Amino acid sequence: MEIKSFQEFYAEDFSHCYGCGTNNERGYHIKTYWDGNETVSKFKPKPYHTALPGYVYGGLLASLIDCHSTGTGSAALYGNLPDEEKGEYYPRCVTASLKVDFLKPTPIDCELELRGKIKELKGRKVIVEVDLFAKGEICVKGEVVVLQVPDDWRPK
Amino acid sequence: MEIKSFQEFYAEDFSHCYGCGTNNERGYHIKTYWDGNETVSKFKPKPYHTALPGYVYGGLLASLIDCHSTGTGSAALYGNLPDEEKGEYYPRCVTASLKVDFLKPTPIDCELELRGKIKELKGRKVIVEVDLFAKGEICVKGEVVVLQVPDDWRPK
User: Fold this and answer.
1) Fewest C-beta atoms under 10 Å: which of A39, A82, B99, B135?
2) Quick one: chain B helix, strand, coil %, rounded to 5?
């Protein structure tokens, strides 16, 4: 049985994100999964996603951390629901704040791995800590505050 | 006389950034200019740069703030050089940390304007504050720490 990514549990009208939307033909299609208590996404940058030659563009790294975190928030909020409230779709989160520390240049010639931990879950807010690895080394750290979108934004 | 953007003063080998490199055919080509003591970039998102339908993807907004800030840092460091050390190219900066607060959803159907201020310039480090406007309203605020790249990274 194929395991679906968090993003495949977003409602159709909430699946247009350039970073992770399954309905965005031009986007990055970031996919996130549970791995024990952590969440994992993997992504292979394209050769043109350069900062300085040989290294990944920081805006892409921030984008990966962003969508990894909204996905993690969605999955955490869903997991926290009582069984009788669990529906077909995950709650959808948006980002309130994004903090990214670039510890070292991230090489572009390899698959990147993002690992997330839930630092706090309170009401509609989730704080996610993310480490981004290339070739086994942490290159970037992120802390992201995500919020469940209001009910009246939900697709009918 | 056409005024050149900061990014057009980067050395050729430092012009491959996906966000702002003049030599990156696939990239965003962000261009930044002085406006008094502030710096300005303008950018029209593509229809596919969506978060939720109608709004701009946060990863793109973070990317714009990132490159606006490295550009602002470069121009500020160049402006700070004694005249006899001013060469053909601006010093090139990379991002050490990026903090972005999404105050409200950013509409996608308009040109975005980023305005930057130099909060601190000390040695090789510049801290840049950025406000991102859509339709005259601040939607996103950023604070970015950028560092001049080491001399031994400079293209020969």
Assistant:
1) A82
2) 25, 35, 40
